## 1
Amino acid sequence: MTMPDRDGWTVETLHDNYAQALREDRVFYDSETDHQRLRVFENGRFGRVLTLDGVVQTTEGDEFMYHEMLAHVPILAHGAAKRVLVIGGGDGGMAREVLRHTSVDHCTMVEIDAGVVDFSKEYLPALSDGVFDDPRLDLVIADGAAFMAEKHEPFDVIIVDSTDPIGPGEVLFTDSFYGHAARLLTPDGILVTQNGVPFMQPDELRQTMRAFRTLFPDWGCYLTHVPSYAGGPMALGWGSMSVKGRDVDLAVLKQRFAAAGLQTRYYTPEVHKAAFALPAYVAALLS
Ligand code: SAM
């Protein structure tokens, strides 16, 4: 296939020597905020697509594969998560999945760019699906790294739903940020992170794992598949103060999943357990 002309297409060039093109059937929004360039367009295959600085962040078509695995794996592994922290997640999809758990009492969401929240409510309403009106949600507009450094109250689950380590997202991939996360977790607490596509971004995972190894008694990653995050399976970082979460039995996960009453399209207890089985090329990035 020849490279389409740029008219009428978004061409994502996040990775060297590789591009991903998505036809723009209709552009809904395109504007710069103080932090990044926001763009939302309609695509025949993925539905509405959000890009930040030209990089695909989330699409209506496949967002469930990402949000379900980054939210339900730690919460169901923990088993008694009451207080959850989401760093990033401006489109609202992560908070939506977290607060589908009626067992979660409180979700703090720290998003640096109010513009992402505001226009997601208007142009991507299916993603947040009303979560911004949930009384259990506390939306904080701030830099996630600065927030964590100043925070002292603990969380059972911390979810880093950030952009890639470029621009405002860069501080969310530092040792000091991960150190504050470790400090803020409860004794059985779990940190999970968006860690890119290891075939395309091996250094991103390698560096995070190098930090996790020194901070967490139990550390590693698990995998999900998000077609619009091109280049193969996506790694989700895992760091916990105890091994209980990772070792939870399938039978227990099934009970917790049934009790939560979730209707999911990607997550199942079996997929949860299998997601931690890593292909050799990914496991090699953890060694
Ligand atoms: N699913 C996407 C992915 O895997 O790349 C992430 C989507 S979500 C839209 C990413 C969010 O992180 C954006 O809303 C962005 O504004 C936010 N963000 C980036 N840097 C941040 C920071 N330092 N503190 C808080 N939020 C940040």
## 2
Amino acid sequence: MRHFEYIDGVMHAENVSLARIASEVGTPVYVYSRATLTRHFNVFKDAFKGRDVLIAYSVKANSNLAVLSLLGKLGAGADVVSGGELARALTAGIPASKIVFSGVGKKPAEMRAALTAGIRMFNVESEPELEALNDVAVSMGVRAPISFRVNPDVTAGGHEKISTGKAENKFGVAWSAAEDAYARAATLPGINIVGVDVHIGSQIDDLAPFKMAIDKVAGLIKRLRAAGHSIKIFDIGGGLGIPYGANAPAPPLPSEYGQMVKNATAHLGVQMVFEPGRMIAGNAGVLLSTVTYVKRGENRDFLIVDAAMNDLIRPALYDAYHEIEPIVAPKPETAQVLYDVVGPVCESGDTFTKQREFPQMNTGDVIVMHSAGAYGAVQAGQYNTRPLVPEVLVNGDLYAVVRDRPTVEEILKTESIPDWD
Ligand code: LLP
């Protein structure tokens, strides 16, 4: 069941009216459903019942502390890609032993913080990074647990900008160099090899590329073991796609993904790690926005809304589709109109959709942009000095503002004019 539904003609998140949140908190605002986050996490977990797995939620998808704390209580670990995300995961109460650290550009200070915390493992993406990590670990008198993220040269991912598993991408150790990288790692006093990691992309709506990558890595694991390395963990990364709207192609269900992975890895005797992000958070959140003006153009009608590309950049950056609905259910007799839905930012790219059919709208109407719980608020900025969009978490009949909207004064306070001007 969906937790964003019309109840008595008004869209609700669980039992809270989104009209109430829009009026009490103001728009634009992100709203997340605790029940949906919980359900998505449990569906993913249940797909691996009976197997030794760590679900390291990919913090980058939605890093709000309230979201991390909820998922942590449900048993999630965390996949982090910066010292900042590490601090968030720890602050939210996720144990260090369930945290994996990914990313191509980890800096020594970030490595030190992660070693001090005692994280589960580093997913190392290059030989220079391996040497840097070894230096930091040796200087601290510890050994860093590592997997190499290997690049299996598999095509996957919903958009060129979010595909990561091709040889031409910046991610992971080149397939042909992987065995040498393990051989080098085995000689280093500050490194402890524990596994292999792969992540091929995001919004993947087909099991075939996952299967191809897993089979390739399974072969690698056998060769590495034959060479004397102890491979206890296989991290398959994230990437499972979600449906963006009722008419969008439906990606495989987590249960189908789970069955395929379980079959493909049964013979390996490894602990599996997963790094799902979008699958957990994407359809657990919406962005609310108010129509500021309805503008008649030369040959089209524009809905100028108060959310913009700085709040939700996915349509501008990846041509992403987000289903949009009015917060008040339209009456059957309401005329349908083609609109371009645009924000107030001074760029043509500040467009959420073009020429889409909606019920006729008026100034002051509130719209709901769906599937905005992942890569929405986390990618927001303050372009045009538009304050960072706030976030709300709903829980049954309750809601809480879990990130405030900063005031313009607060934004300006972080800047200063040097006294030479
Ligand atoms: N693990 C690693 C190493 C990753 O780089 C990512 C996502 C994930 C896990 C989580 O992938 P997911 O399960 O969420 O697909 N901003 C883009 C998506 C970028 C994904 C980056 N990496 C978007 O809005 O579509």
